[in-house]
Design brief:
By secondary structure, this protein is mainly alpha-helical. It has nine helices and no strands. It has two domains: 60 residues, no CATH class; 92 residues, DnaA protein, C-terminal DNA-binding domain (Chromosomal Replication Initiator Protein Dnaa, Chain: A), CATH 1.10.1750. Helix content is 60%, strand content 0%.
């Protein structure tokens, strides 16, 4: 198990004290008498806590933690002969879903992202929101930002509405499947009018 050090004010002050103690040992001359003209002694005087001290002290804490708990070594393993090649599948982007919906419904991206509430625009927009939620790992607020700053509750309403309609309407379900195929099979740059 990897242990990460917890940096507290006390650990920083303790690291600062040990650093000062090491410096003081070096600053004392051979005769053991501190001379005021010695510049090293002047540096040794206590000073206010500064960000630079915090940075140096935190480095010392991390160095100490590395020595006590070294990081695990990573081994590179060669694939076995009978291993199957792994295909990396990436989730489609919200923009790609929007473009596929635009292309299917023959509307522009500006219409899809606009504030208009006509039925010709609302259904494709809600389908795009539903697919964005189902096919991407994005959160509702993030999807809302990609739909021209819509609120996350608007996205949630669209997802629930389309999910309910898909159970009842076979034609809508077929349309959504066509759009999904277009997203999966289509090229990254789908031809969609921007306005």
């Amino acid at each position: 198990m990897l242990h990460t050090p917890i940096i507290t004010r006390e650990s920083v002050i303790e690291a600062k004290r040990t650093r000062r103690a090491r410096f003081t040992q070096k600053a004392v001359p051979d005769d053991g008498i501190l001379h005021p003209q010695d510049r090293r002694v002047k540096r040794e005087r206590p000073k206010d806590f500064s960000p630079r001290d915090l940075e140096l002290s935190s480095r010392e804490v991390f160095d100490l933690a590395k020595r006590k708990h070294p990081l695990p070594q990573v081994k590179i393993v060669e694939p076995a002969e009978n291993d199957l090649p792994v295909e990396i599948v990436r989730a489609p982007t919200v923009e790609r879903i929007q473009r596929a919906v635009c292309e299917h419904y023959h509307i522009s991206m500006l219409d899809l992202l606009s504030e208009r509430r006509t039925a010709v625009i609302v259904e494709p927009r809600q389908i795009a929101m539903y697919l964005a939620k189902m096919l991407t790992p994005r959160s509702l607020p993030d999807i809302g930002r990609r739909f021209n700053g819509k609120d996350h509750t608007t996205i949630l309403y669209a997802v629930r509405k389309i999910a309910a309609l898909l159970k009842e309407d076979a034609e809508l379900a077929a349309t959504v499947e066509k759009i999904k195929q277009r997203i999966d099979v289509g090229s990254p740059a789908l031809a969609c009018a921007r306005g």
